[in-house]
Amino acid sequence: MKCIEVKTDPPYQIWIGPALIGEIGKLIAPIVEDHSVVILSDMYVDPLYGDAVCTAIEDFGIEVKSIPFMVDESSKNLELVESLLRMLAQQSISRNDVILALGGGLIADVVTLTAALYLRGVKVIHVPTTLVAMLDAAIGGNADINIPEGKSMAGVCHDPSLVVADLDLLASLPDQEIKNGIGEIIKYAVIEKSDLYAKLKNHVGRTDMNDLEYIIGKCAEIKVGILAENPKSSQRGVLDLGLLVGQAIEIATDNAIDHGEALGLGMLVMAYGTGNSKTGDKIKVLLDKYGLMTTLDWPEREIVNAAMFKTSPTSRYTAVIPEDIGQCVVKRVTSRELMLIIRKGLSAIRPKKGSIKVGRRLHLLRRAKS
Q: How far apart are CA 173 and CA 167, in angstroms?
């Protein structure tokens, strides 16, 4: 079991390890005090873990309410947040009560924004149930939602009061969700000069990922350290490595390519597109090792357009360039410079002609898009 102290104002803790749900009442009691907890979870996670979390909290003498709801990428919007705010009001949740977010990255984003808005801000505790949420979405307090004009264009920074990452909850994840998390892990291995890259490269496993407590803890420490330099900034600096192009790939393919694989491809595009081929090769080694995509055959124009317009069009963009492992540079580039980088990077990861496997994958992706 690992505990990371996050020195924000006020500070909070990140607990990582197995069998933590059974301890959750004890962990949250100092935060909740004599008030109640309302669990916000999605309709898929609630049947799996909702009762266990409720029971563990109630056994500690804390009153619990539960509000399951449906959320996906298309409904991650202001309308959903408003509906949650109204449900909290109808349940007579007070400013002193505590919201507990139980679920993956979508839950973390939507619930964090809801907690920040309700009665001008109530405490939120995260119990992430996916690898992506444990590594990234539940940490740091940055949360965003989509509006019709663009992806992730509305958001807040609202630090949690506690994060409880129970590794046992990962047992129910499908392989693709594990891959999504591995894409994030590789990102952290690239942005920080530590032993994480070497550990992943030399690891005997693939998607089974032993040593998760250490790996998740290391990623959390890296993120916390970076955010500590400017905790309230809407710009996450090197933490956005691969995200600009990765989100563009998600948008262009209508999410037929999942987040972790799109993020990995985004890192490759930024490395090869800026002439850092050796770094791109190093990133590719890890993506290959853990079974993530390293090639993409998709209409270039669609990805470029999605990258340029995923947020409001502007004359300059923020690009995170991986010059080497542990050496990433944040640079402002013009729209023309960004377009050239993406085109060059996409050209570098285009599969060789005649690849049956890639051709079939492309067919399936295009069919999913249509």
A: 11
Cβ-proximal residues to 274 (8 Å cutoff; 6+ apart), any chain: 319, 321, 323, 341, 345
Q: 134 and 236 share a domain? A: no
Q: How far is CA 14 from CA 4, 127, 129, 136, 172, in A?
A: 5, 10, 14, 12, 22
- Looking at the DSSP bridge assignments, the partners of residue 4 are 14
- Residues 168, 244, single domain; the answer is no
Q: Which residues contact 54 (CB under 8 A, 6 or more apart)?
A: 39, 64, 66
CA 123 to CA 25: how far, in whole Å? Answer: 16
Q: Are 328 and 237 in contact (CB under 8 A)?
A: no
For residue 65, pLDDT over 80 is answered with yes
Q: What are 351-370's pLDDT values in tens digits?
A: 987 554 444 455 555 555 44
Q: Output the pLDDT for position 202.
A: 87
Q: Return the sign of the alpha-carbon dihedral for residues 137, 184, 164, 106.
A: positive
pLDDT digits (tens, 9 = 90+) for 324-344: 999 999 999 999 999 999 999
- What is the C-alpha separation between 212 and 131, in angstroms, rounded? 10
Task: Look up the domain containing 336 and give its range.
Answer: 232-369
Beta strand spans in 260-367 (E): 316-324, 327-334
Query: Whole-prediction pTM value?
Result: 0.89
The predicted-structure confidence for 208-231, as pLDDT tens digits, reads as follows: 455 889 999 999 999 999 988 765
Domain count, the chain: 2
d(CA 138, CA 109): 8
Residue 90: inside a domain: yes
Tokens of 268: 């490759």
Q: Which of 98-102, 135-139, 279-283 has the lowest mean pLDDT?
A: 135-139
Segment (H or E) for 259: helix 259-273
